[in-house]
Amino acid sequence: MPMAHSPGKYVDFEGLRQQAVALRRAGYSLRQIRDELKIFNNDILNQLVKGEPPPEWTKRPNAKDDLRAKARELRLQGWTYDQIEAELGCSRSSVSLWVRDLPRPEPRYTPEEQRALMREGLARRRATEREKLEMTKVAALRETGELTDRELFMVGVALYWAEGSKSKPYDRRERAIFVNSDPGVIKTYLAWLDLLEVDRERLNFRLLIHESADVDAAHRFWSAVADVDTSVFAKPTLKKHNPKTVRKNTGDDYHGCLVIGVARSAHLYNRIEGWWAGIVAQAETRLG
Fold first, then answer.
1. What are the beta bridge partners of residue 171?
2. What is the mean pLDDT of residues 185-199?
3. What is the pTM of this model?
4. pLDDT tens-digit readout, 37-84
5. How far, in Å, CA of 192 to CA of 184, rounded?
6. Would you tell me how many other CB atoms lie within 10 Å of the CB of residue 164?
7. What is the pLDDT of residues 231-257, one digit of tens each?
8. Are 172 and 201 in contact (CB under 8 A)?
9. d(Cα 126, Cα 132) in Å, to the nearest integer?
10. Residue 219 near residue 234 (C-beta atoms within 8 A)
11. For the range 69-72, what are the long-range contacts, defined as Cβ-Cβ under 8 Å and sequence gap of 24 or more?
């Protein structure tokens, strides 16, 4: 058996070629032809079967052929690269390779329609987010349960210490004065004063509001919140307008702040200081 590495060194190269072609046409693979003819040089083996297509059974199926065909079909329907990529789960580079010879589809929407669709989508997303937030709030509200007197007491102490006036070591005024713009906070504070049996006759009310606001409307608003007549309000304190600043607290929802003072409140104020000191001491023990 000849062992040459070029066709010229085989005694009967043409005869070998005829045998190789016959085997190829009979459905032999290159490996089967090599084993049959004992031709172990790949270059010579390829020359022996040159021009003869491999049998169908030796061709590996291309898993992406179906994807390619589908991508081209979708592109012809006017789909964008992003849509095809998402639909078929393949890379953008593959989509581009498969369909780049096809004509670019006409835009499905005008720029105005696209902006309108974006606004609609954003509105739907925000509505969904608001719905989730409201569900969270409702669930949290249910977790609160019934408020006991002790719980209200502790809440009131913390509220006052966060929002009420406080005496300084160098300036002991010892007066209970509370200021806030949140109606819920005001109602909770008043409920706390009722719990402490502070006579409503000892309370005085004053509005703290920007000079450009509707003072009369604000008086009516806070009188309803505090359940008092507008006649009990002292002269309002008006904030001067600074032309260099842009106010955001404007419009019908702006009512300023309500100031609630308690007459003859030195004893009450000192009790509040003591209560808060007790809460802090208990919190410190939890911290270790």
1. 168
2. 97
3. 0.59
4. 888 888 888 888 888 888 877 665 555 778 889 999 998 888 888 888
5. 12
6. 20
7. 999 999 998 877 666 666 677 889 999
8. no
9. 10
10. no
11. 71/95, 71/98, 71/99, 72/98, 72/99, 72/102
Q: Look at residues 4, 10, 18, 11 and name the one whose alpha carbon lies nearest to residue 48.
A: 18
Q: Residues for the chain: how many in total?
A: 288
Question: For residue 246, which amino acid is it?
Answer: V
What secondary structure does DSSP assign to the chain, as a single string? ----SSGGGSTTHHHHHHHHHHHHHTT--HHHHHHHHT---HHHHHHHTTTPPPPGGGSPP-TTHHHHHHHHHHHHTT--HHHHHHHHT--HHHHHHHHTTSPPPPPSS-HHHHHHHHHHHHHHHHHHHHHHHHHHHHHHHHHH-PPPHHHHHHHHHHHHHHHB---BTTB-----EEEES-HHHHHHHHHHHHHTT--GGGEEEEEEEETTS-HHHHHHHHHHHHT--GGGBPPPEEEPP-TTS---S-STT---EEEEEETT-HHHHHHHHHHHHHHHHHHHHHH-
For 24, 34, 39, 48, 224, the CA distances from 3, given in Å and listed in that order, are 22, 13, 8, 15, 111
pLDDT in tens, 20-40: 899 988 888 888 888 888 888
